[in-house]
Amino acid sequence: MTLAHPAGYRPPPEGTHPPLDYPGYKSTALRAPSQAPIVLPNRLTEVTGPLLTAGHSDLIGPSDHDLTTQHAGEPIGQRIIVFGRVLDSDGRAVPDTLVEVWQANASGRYPHKNDNWAGALDPNFTGGGRVLTNSKGEYSFTTIKPGAYPWGNHHNAWRPAHIHFSLFGRAFTQRLVTQMYFPDDPLFGQDPIFNSVPDPKARQRMISTFDLEATRPDWALAYRWDIVLRGREQTPFEEPHE
Amino acid sequence: MSDLITPSQTVGPFLSLGLTWTDGHLVVPEGSPGAIRISGVLLDGAGAPVPDGVVETWQADADGRFDHPDDPRGASGSGFGGFGRCMTDDEGRFRIVTVKPGALGDGQAPHIDVTVLARGLLQHLTTRIYFPDEAEANAADPLLSSLPPERAVTLVAEQADEGELRFDIRLQGEGETVFLQV
């Protein structure tokens, strides 16, 4: 008897993702595994994945797509729209998938007990959002442009302004957590997290594009950022099985 | 065409602002028939707890089925979500309440796929939880049987009390958990 295994997902090209052991980012020192990962062929558990639209109707609140309306007043800072498409690497839209974001406020401060640098907190900005892509894989949310902030990684270290993104796709293997950056940030050159991506072209794919067409007059600037998840192998294969 | 995939970046230290779900650790409601609790600690290379991490789980239902259209056997239609997410606490602890997944019928032992994210991890890590009461299936499992015994043991949860399993995740060093490239 043969059992058909489902088509798996193509591995990302070399240089796309950062190495786990990256001395420039000090926190990797005690957290990067010392042994190489074991290759696990994609099987049913890997080609399926959480579809969070079903049974999670309470997951997304009414103001989760607009981080500027989550409190009584307007937050301080530059109001922006961040939008784009979630695609797989064959160019196919990934519809109905959860996009989670979190970010610092305009001062570069997070409302978190472990963030105690001297940037001001903003009582009108928490910095967390959730949206689902539509049938074309499009997402959009409104927020405040985050500020840069210093951190303790090395002398005079500053994180470039960024928004954290978490994506699921439709398969366990497509899970992606990343950061979106803004064009022409002068802090890129000294940031080990941005530069941990080996391929310089891949690095550029984390930078959003200013989009004048998408701005809302008298309201908000706009940045476009498309996100590409792994695509699927074309041919299912069979292997002998008892 | 070349794969123009978006690179991975770390979740950073403030992941709880974006990834916290109330009841995210409940794959099934507490006290459901057949519910088990899987608890553990996420530890770094010095054996210190990792308080800024998140552990996510993905699994088949008790019958070994997925409610997902890409299961070639067809979506089960059961509504079983199969997904759990738990932030680690100040002591690095996490817990997931779920049911034991059934065998998929493809020669693999029952298992749960696990994603680990934390500050200091530039990519998420993947591992698996296997079950201590499946000695025969575990011995025949293609992944477990390919590993040296001292490494395979890191993927098998330990039985604690009735309905309670223990699964610690060691990122680095002695007893380092086996991580997978999927």
From TrEMBL, chain A:
Keywords per UniProt: Dioxygenase, Oxidoreductase
Keyword Lyase: no
Lineage top rank: taxon: Bacteria
Span of domain Intradiol ring-cleavage dioxygenases: 82-110
Gene3D superfamilies, A to Z: Aromatic compound dioxygenase
Region (Disordered): 1-27
Family annotation (SUPFAM superfamilies): Aromatic compound dioxygenase
InterPro entries registered for this protein in UniProt: Intradiol_dOase_C, Intradiol_dOase_core, Intradiol_RC_Dioxygenase, PCDO_beta_N, Protocat_dOase_a, Protocat_dOase_b
Keyword Electron transport listed: no
PANTHER family: DIOXYGENASE, PUTATIVE (AFU_ORTHOLOGUE AFUA_2G02910)-RELATED (PTHR33711), INTRADIOL RING-CLEAVAGE DIOXYGENASES DOMAIN-CONTAINING PROTEIN (PTHR33711:SF10)
Family named by the database record: Belongs to the intradiol ring-cleavage dioxygenase family.
Record's protein name: Protocatechuate 3,4-dioxygenase subunit beta
Organism of provenance: Pseudonocardia adelaidensis
Gene encoding the protein: pcaH
TrEMBL record, chain B:
UniProt keywords, alphabetically: Dioxygenase, Oxidoreductase
Listed SUPFAM superfamilies: Aromatic compound dioxygenase (SSF49482)
Residue stretches making up the Intradiol ring-cleavage dioxygenases domain: 35-173
Compositional bias of kind Basic and acidic residues: 62-73
Keyword Oxidoreductase: yes
Annotated segments matching region Disordered: 62-82
Assigned protein family: Belongs to the intradiol ring-cleavage dioxygenase family.
Protein name: Protocatechuate 3,4-dioxygenase subunit alpha
Species whose genome carries this gene: Pseudonocardia adelaidensis
Name of the gene encoding the protein in the UniProt record: pcaG
